[in-house]
Amino acid sequence: MGVDDRFADERVIKRLLNESQIWAFVGLGDDPGRTVYQQARLLQQRGKRIVPIHPAARTVLGEQGYASLAEVPVKVDVVGVYRRTEFAGQAVDEAIAARAGAVWLPLDVIDEAAAQRALDAGLDVVMNRCPGVEWVLRGGA
């Protein structure tokens, strides 16, 4: 089974897009030209609360930023990991420690070992998929 089969379950994707409320975006800064900014804005426009996670801890899209997931004072439903693949595992481990409900690794961010750790810890995992594209394909809320 390839990465697309194991970590792109249509039922999980639909549930995360339709039922989740709070999405933390690891790597979200204030640059509107970055993919993470565009995806966070898109989900925010569709009713999701976004939580920026960035070392600078800036307010982004009107939401308070945090330097790490451990600092977020609310339970996060989905952690979008918008870091290069070599840093994705650390972000996934932080999501596990924070007891997030799921991790979502976007296109070309593939870390199967980290994804398996998240599954083993009880988190839902989506990998190598774009939330915006999936929203259109899967009929998000």
Overview of this structure, please?
Residues 16-109 form the CoA-binding domain. The chain has a 5-stranded parallel sheet, with helices on both faces. The chain has 141 residues and is of the alpha/beta class. Strand 1, helix 3 and strand 2 (49-53) form a beta-alpha-beta unit. It has helices at residues 3-6, 10-19, 35-45, 85-97, 112-120, 131-138, and strands at residues 22-26, 49-53, 78-81, 102-105, 124-127. It has a single domain, classed as NAD(P)-binding Rossmann-like Domain (Rossmann fold, 3-Layer(aba) Sandwich). 39% of the residues lie in helices and 16% in strands. Helix 2 (10-19) packs across helix 6 (131-138).
What are the key terms here?
single chain, 141 residues, alpha/beta, Rossmann fold, five-stranded parallel sheet, 6 helices
Q: In angstroms, what separates the terminal alpha carbons?
A: 29 Å
Whole-number total of structural domains: 1
Class derived from helix and strand content: alpha/beta
List the uncertain runs.
none
How would you classify the quaternary structure? single chain
Query: What gross morphology would you assign?
Result: globular
In sequence order, what are the helices and strands, one letter per element?
HHEHEEHEHEH
Query: What is the total tally of β strands?
Result: 5
Architecture (CATH level 2) name = 3-Layer(aba) Sandwich
Mean pLDDT: 93
Radius of gyration: 13 Å
Q: What is the beta-strand fraction?
A: 15-25%
**Which homologous superfamily in CATH is the superfamily?**
NAD(P)-binding Rossmann-like Domain
CATH class category label: Alpha Beta
The helix tally amounts to 6
Strand order of the largest sheet: 2-1-3-4-5
